[in-house]
Design goal:
By secondary structure, the protein is mainly alpha-helical. The protein contains eight helices and no strands.
Length: about 210
Amino acid sequence: MEGFALSIDEKSWVAKAREGDVAAFEAIYSRYERRLYAFIYRLMGNSEDAYDLTQDTFVKAYMALPRTSPDLNLSAWLHRIASNTCMDVLRRRKLIKWLPWETFDTNPAIEPAADDDPVGEYNQFETSGEVQAVLDKLTPKHRMALILKEYQGMSCDEIGEVMGASRSAVKSLLFRAREEFRQAYLARYGHAPGAEPDVITGESPSRLEG
């Protein structure tokens, strides 16, 4: 999992790319292109959108990089550009409406009481697109939060940086997102994640609870 600190080579790439070094930005592109493509694919649900929006993300990043601060968290910054780009498209398609973060209940009573930063494992039991089919049914913000957590391996702090939310808001959002995932999975497959043996391996899949 990538934390807030950049590796030495990334710090060098960012510094050089800020000054217009194309080769340095190409190094950034090479490191993050596949990861951002996977993130966008799971948000949008199709490869055509994923390809186009990945390219759009890097174009925006290239243009904005000279205005970034020296303590830039490159991974979170790129994911935030990607998430905003996707949300803009979804809004234009009238698939979602803008809701300010204040509308999400951040009451600690409904936050997960287990690990401070639980890492779910539902991606380990994905078979034949089962998980993607369920993710596609979720609200975009819930889908984004789960993808950042379960597939991108981000902490609540990093997710908050990507989504522009407080840590408590992220924890509350993840709680709600996991519940929506469970309900959508149950509605589609007739049982909760992990409740029946995997049809391919014969083993019980990991559960969504993090």
